Amino acid sequence: MSEAAEHDLSHLPPAAGRLGAAFARPKVLAAVCVVTLAGLGWLALGLLFSGMSAFDALCHSLAMPHGTWGASGFAIVALMWGAMTLAMMLPSASPMILTYAEIADTAARKHERIVSPFVLAGGYTLVWLGFAAAATLAQFAFTRAALLDSGMQSASGLFSGAIFIGAGVYQFSALKHACLTQCQSPFPFFFANWATTPRGVFRLGVRQGLYCLGCCWAMMLVMFAVGVMNVIWMAALGVLMTFEKIGSGKRFTYTIGVALIVAGIAFVLTALAAHWPVHAI
User: Fold this and answer.
1) Pick from 127, 82, 117: which is nearest to 9 by CA?
2) Cβ-Cβ contacts under 8 Å for 77 (sequence gap 6 or more)
3) How far is residue 146's CA from residue 263's CA, in Å, rounded to a whole number?
């Protein structure tokens, strides 16, 4: 790439010298984008866990009469869900962001106008922050209905089982696979809808975020069944969703579906056995 081509990207984040040359390359920006945003999510979660005594006090404060939350309760839970979505979903978006960067890199070599991958990630993130807001409202409703306890854990085996089974069944749905196909193969989408303005690229990010939401929303709801702040499940689900999006094939998706359904049935049977224990004759 010529020196003129490298410095014809004035709309990208400003930098100077060697650092400027590095940040003028879309692939570098894409990698920085994924690491930075996902890292911010895990950092926020880490800060929440670092003050567990205060966090435990908050959890108990959320269990007020009739499930009433204060403004601080809504704010903290929304922050928690926002951090979770960044931590879990940004790594799974890396194939999409890197594909955009590949195309943008080729365009930059041809002296064509490109937009920073951060703009694309911004549109994608907006969709998942919307999901975080909806999840906050859902958590409020579940807490009020006594399906979640003050520690943000499931208070009903039947509730947990229903979530697992629902998420498992969704793995076999046509909508799931239509959205997953878009997530696994973003190149045709970008090739057909390429944009060279920040607004256009932001819209591409929103559309890709909607595909990702259609692919992963059911598995995200599993957090309600296993404990909203269960870090092990956060990491495990994040890894599963990332593997799904790197082209693992339908067999992998169906295997996850079967495992979720089996786990859900186990929850239901355990709950029923607790309500109607079998007494030895």
Assistant:
1) 117
2) 62, 69, 136, 139, 140
3) 22
Q: How many CB atoms lie within 10 A of CB 172?
A: 14
What is the spatial distance between Cα 244 and Cα 257, in angstroms, rounded to a whole number?
12
Q: Are residues 21 and 70 in contact, defined by beta-carbon separation less than 8 angstroms? A: no
> What distance lies between CA 132 and its chain's CA centroid?
9
Token pair for residue 155? 């208070």
Measured CA to CA, the distance from residue 242 to residue 212 in angstroms comes to: 11
**pTM above 0.85?**
no
Shortest CA distance to 170 belongs to which of 236, 217, 234?
217
**Rounded Cα–Cα distance for residues 63 and 237 (Å):** 27
CA distances to 54, 57, 63, 64, 76 from 69, in Å: 16, 13, 8, 7, 11
Confidence of residue 23 (pLDDT cuts 50, 70, 90): very low
Question: What is the amino acid identity at position 240?
Answer: L
Query: What pLDDT score does 60 carry?
Result: 55
DSSP three-state, residue 191: helix
pLDDT confidence bin for 61, thresholds 50/70/90: low
Tokens 């709801």 sit on residue: 221
Determine the residue type at 117: P
